[in-house]
Specification:
It contains 13 helices and no strands. Helices cover about 60% and strands about 0% of the residues. It has two domains: about 80 residues, Endonuclease Iii, domain 2, CATH 1.10.1670; about 110 residues, Endonuclease III, domain 1 (Orthogonal Bundle), CATH 1.10.340.30. It is globular, with a radius of gyration of 17 Å. The longest helix is centred in the middle third of the chain and has 17 residues. It is mainly α. Keywords: DNA damage, DNA repair. One of its GO terms (molecular function) is DNA-3-methyladenine glycosylase activity. This is 3-methyladenine DNA glycosylase. InterPro entries: Alkylbase_DNA_Glycosylase/TA, DNA_glycosylase, HhH-GPD_domain.
């Protein structure tokens, strides 16, 4: 039987100490892809606290399903705290789900790259947002979201500064096939990661 992700990462000089400090962090796949995608959109370019407040208002104001979002007036979404751009994004995502019937089951047998390509074809879903779905909706084990500021800060804290994103991706190959688990530990590697994790770059 193959080693578990935590057994593999315990042997890594970078991630091993974090496993000892934080215990066995796990991926906890979401039960609803649309809800999780909407939450990721709310988290684009804002602090976790701001996103959480908007999420609470939105979930109180509307039924967060594709049909529920499309049935809601844009002003209701704006009153919940969505910017004009994010209002457009959640509407675009709702349209895509209604058109294609997307769900977690839709992509059950798809490769990570296929899911990423399909999701990023939807307006408002960039590289970071698609990677967050691979991690937190699908629970895929080998995702390294280098576009996330929290990941880059954690990488600097653990590995060192001066790496380009391409160099970070190359370095992270040593954590494959468990780069998602390594990412969970990188997010914990700095005291301010909890706030910075949602400040993202989509390029």
């Amino acid at each position: 039987m193959s080693d578990s992700p935590h057994e593999v990462l315990r042997a890594d000089p970078d991630i091993g100490p974090l496993v000892e400090t934080h215990g066995e962090l796990t991926l906890d796949p979401a039960s609803d892809l649309f809800e999780r995608l909407v939450v990721s959109i709310l988290r684009q370019q804002v602090s976790m606290a701001s996103a959480a407040a908007t999420r609470e208002r939105l979930f109180d104001a509307v039924t967060v399903t594709p049909a529920g979002i499309r049935d809601a007036d844009d002003e209701v979404l704006r009153d919940a705290g969505l910017s004009r751009q994010k209002t457009r994004y959640v509407n675009e995502v709702a349209d895509a789900f209604l058109e294609h019937g997307y769900s977690l089951e839709t992509f059950e047998d798809a490769a990570d790259e296929e899911i990423h390509e399909e999701l990023t074809a939807v307006t408002g879903v960039g590289d970071w947002t698609a990677n967050m779905q691979l991690l937190f909706a699908f629970g895929r084990e080998d995702v390294f979201p280098v576009g996330d500021l929290g990941i880059r800060k954690g990488f600097e804290a653990v590995v060192g500064e001066g790496y380009s994103r391409a160099e970070m991706r190359e370095y992270a190959e040593r954590w494959s096939p468990y780069r998602s688990y390594a990412s969970l530990y990188l997010w914990r590697a700095s005291e301010d990661i909890a706030e910075s994790v949602a400040e993202v770059s989509e390029d």
